[in-house]
Amino acid sequence: LHCLSPNILLKNHFSYAPWCPACKDLQKAWHAFADWSKDLNINVAEVDVTVNPGLSGRFLVTALPTIYHVKDGVFRAYAGSRDKNDFINYIEEKKWTFYDPIPSYKYPSSPQMTVVAWFFKLSMFVRDRHNYLVDEVGIPSWASYSVFAGLTLTLGCILGFFIVCIIDRVFPTNDQFCKPEIKKSTKKDQKAKAKKV
Question: Where are the transmembrane segments (predicted)?
């Protein structure tokens, strides 16, 4: 599973990382649960968040392992016990109906979660480039961080400039603030000018 589109609907999905001890502990129970998937008429998946950072961003995976139940396009975070029999009971007894679905603003295919997924992918790209510069090229870590800081500042300034230009174009300043103020002359001012001449 490399990406999530609205057309891909899993019944149960488990996010893990190979270095995570809790994930390693759960793998045996999860695989035993997956063996029951045909009997339960469900699909069971597991996702390595180190390989699929975009997917972990879409689901806002902040703790590992994370388990989601998906039915009819409705996503629910699993919060029960992490045992094969508990997983099976969760499905057979429809315990998922007792849990609230994730809010619509956190729905994995929503535009904002797509943006979050892009940021997760970007962070992994930056990490990979940093590792390349340090490990392969031999640049010290501080120099690599300096390069990324400089690039971030430069891109931020350029992006800020374009955003200001777009805002000025879309919402131009009012003309009355740009024109010089014209004073209306009063009768006293006209008499004073006439006396000077």
Answer: 142-167
